[in-house]
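Supplementary notes for students who missed Thursday's class. We covered one full example, reproduced here. Read the sequence, then the structure, then the short commentary at the end.
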Amino acid sequence: MAAMANEVILTTSKDWDDWYEGVQMKAMALNLRKYTDLDAEPKNPPTEPEPYEPNMEHTRPEMVQIHFYIYRQHMEAYKTYTQGVKELYHHISATIDPRLRRALTKTLDPRQILEELKGFIAPTKRQRELDLTGLFLKLSKPSKDCHRLVLKYDVDGFTSEKSNLYRFLNAVQVIHPEFSDFRHQELENALGNGHEPLIFATYQDQSTKESTKKPKRDRCVCGGPHSYIKCWVLNAEERPSKWTPRKEIEEKVKKALENEQIKRSINDVYTKEKKTLAVASLHTQNDENKHSEEVPTLATTTFSTDHATGYQYPL
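Structure (token representation):
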């Protein structure tokens, strides 16, 4: 069985992620996604059981036709399922190394096949960490040259899609949380404004230093190179729904707010922005139960986090 030219062939652990994604897309097209999702709980039974023909003995004549109609409907669905499973099995067989094919159990259970292949060849969490750490340690100046690491993955196709860049930043989080946090926020802000993120800029064979120096940007109290208004910790409107600050950043912000001068400066900025950006912020203020005259203060835009539950609540 020859695989399509654009199919990923599962040969080594490095092929697993892209290959598994291709299998999931094929399963989705065949309406078999629930049988192939290894992150979900296994179905019980693992495969669709064949419908049994109803026993019409002692059944009233007027009900016989109804029972057989239901039986035929179930049989049609079962035939569609079995045909889809066979097609998915052929897809898997055609896109894996022949040596892996010979090691598989003879079964048409899609999940069992994928679990066996995952056990054979999928990279372990430790292996992923070692691979990424090895790449990262090649950088002589991590804080300045992380763009080069991003570029390498971009050239290799890893970040050809923005969703893959999110995966990359999540992996880097363990090694360089500051870089990951700021670049993640930069990506969110750029995408939200309809701009191409700076993180996608080309740095290949170029110096990361600008030929002409730009004015130094003020840093936020959280340590990030952005304004108070754009700060995820201070401004709930900018904060993604499931994002929570790291504890050390949260404590850093709280400590900064103990300085009355800093606190007053931030309050002034928020008050000013409320006046100049009133229309743009209507999506957070047009609730009919809220007063349009409310002026956001630091108390409404500074959040604390319960790190045991991930729940956010106002300070």
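Commentary. Residues 140-144, 154-162, 196-212, 275-315 have pLDDT under 50 and may be disordered. The longest strand covers residues 303-306. If anything here is unclear, bring it to office hours.
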